[in-house]
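quick one, 614 residues, struct below
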Amino acid sequence: MPNCWADANNWDKGSMPAIGDDVIIPATGNNPYLTLSVSVNSLNITGLNASLTLDGTHNLTVTGSVILSTLSSVLYTAKSTLYVGGSLSGNGILNLNGNGTAVIGGDMTMGSLIAGSGVKSMVIFNGTNQNVIGSYAFNNVQVGSTNGTTVNFLENETINVALSGYGTLNCGNDTLNLTGDMTLKYFNADSGTVNLTGYIKAQSQVINGYSFYNLSINNTKTYLSGNVSISHNLNFISGNIQLRSYNLTILQGAQLTWNSISTLDYTSGYVVTCGSGHFTMNASLGGTVFPVGYSLSEYNPVTITSSALSSVFDLRVYDGVTDKYGSPVTSNAVSVTWLVVPHTSVSSVILNPQWTDGSNFDAAQELSPFSRDNALVNYRSNLSYPSQWMPSQSGGFSNGSDPYSRLSGSISMVADSSYYIYVGGAGISALPVSLISLDASYQAGSVNLNWVTASEINNNYFQVERSTNGVDWKTIGIVDGHGTSQTRNNYAAVDNLSDIIASGPIYYRLKQVDFNDGFSYSDIRTVDIMLKAFAVQTYPNPANQSLNVDWTGTEAGNSQLRLVNTNGVQMYTNTITGNGALHQQINMEGFPSGSYILEVINGSMTASKIIYKE
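---
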């Protein structure tokens, strides 16, 4: 039978090729048709218009390499599977039309690929370190059935259906156009670009957790199935990114663009925080817009302005507002909550959240009755429970039409703490005290706190609290309130820092307590005590009966010595007058064995030493 692979008369050796044979299909008229599954050592289709066709039922295994030598050399697989243990090279064509499959163990450098109209056609790379040289339009690509496979894309590639597998794909400096899901296990972006092009089939796409260099979104929507980071550029052309329970991070130095320009156009796409996942980005001194929304129909960005040069924030927006006990709020508020988490402590953060009222064919997010003229940006944190909503002094509206936005006052934020933001009246439940200002400043070894109220209702007292980490708080003083007052009242307190070694950031807040034992917390104020150190010598250390301290007094004429134990209890204090070389002996006989902290203060300079008592 002419061109029948199984007909021995069609082969020059008088028998059908077998395992270990090298097969050559030389010229026009030699177009064998495979009707049984066979295995050979190598395959070379060399002649003009020569071809090999698999019947769609049986498979061909080539343990070595396949060469499609000329432009007209064609290997048709139909629904069959071609197994190539080595490389697939040459100038010819691999035709997978009809849902064929090619499993390749070596490099792929042939002339062209016809993936075909069947969406199930697939190329499986199953070697160890494979190069793909040449731009191809695949349907499906699988990178390995185990994590031992590595594939290097060395030119631009297009995958019209899905990219999967358990191995590693290296993108290099090239572009990958992907219309379907991206679920392979490992992906190295290098300096390449991934274009999600689901728009071609008007479909959504799912991507696993990867670190991208450039990522472009052009589909109906993108679902995250793992944490994603962007190191250079995230470009929205069409479609939103839905985080679900995963996080999207824009690394420092990376940028957001819309249709390749920096002008924000939310109609081209934004980040939907529809689950527990958050959007992370750096906020600049001049203000940075976090383009987030709760759903495809609710776009609620917030602009974050930080007093720190480089501050990273996690942000999530969700539908609805609750009071401090978790009960839903149904009036006098925007029905949106923004959750902001700073990665580092920031002394001043200004927020500008945005919402809609439904008048522009958008979401109706104002809960009646709601007055925009009297609205404030309110916040509470997870630093205490129950956490009362606190109004921040507003900077006024940014605009007067839908969408609306409102500037907050300055909010001091503690690293890794959760700050919940909403827009409404001056607190969901009216606060008994209207606090105009709260200031804290360090001077000559003490922190001075001053605050002013505009009015007070049933105000019993203020509890002044201090924290060295922003989480654990200690009461350091009580200041009586003025009961009920409609006049301005000034308050002050001093923290002499006697029970701590003062260095670095120290946090302060007020706990206002009324006569019914209700309470609320003020904003947090931060005092950053950066003390200059100087040389202090102690001996013997460990000490037994006495401790000798030598230092050089250079400022103010007086030096203060303090010794505290690890619980912060002051065990010794003394003021030494004089400048130059100074010496003091401390009697340690009555002190329990253990560790102590010695602090020597001379003017603006401070030194601390760990002392051990035997």
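The mean pLDDT is 87.
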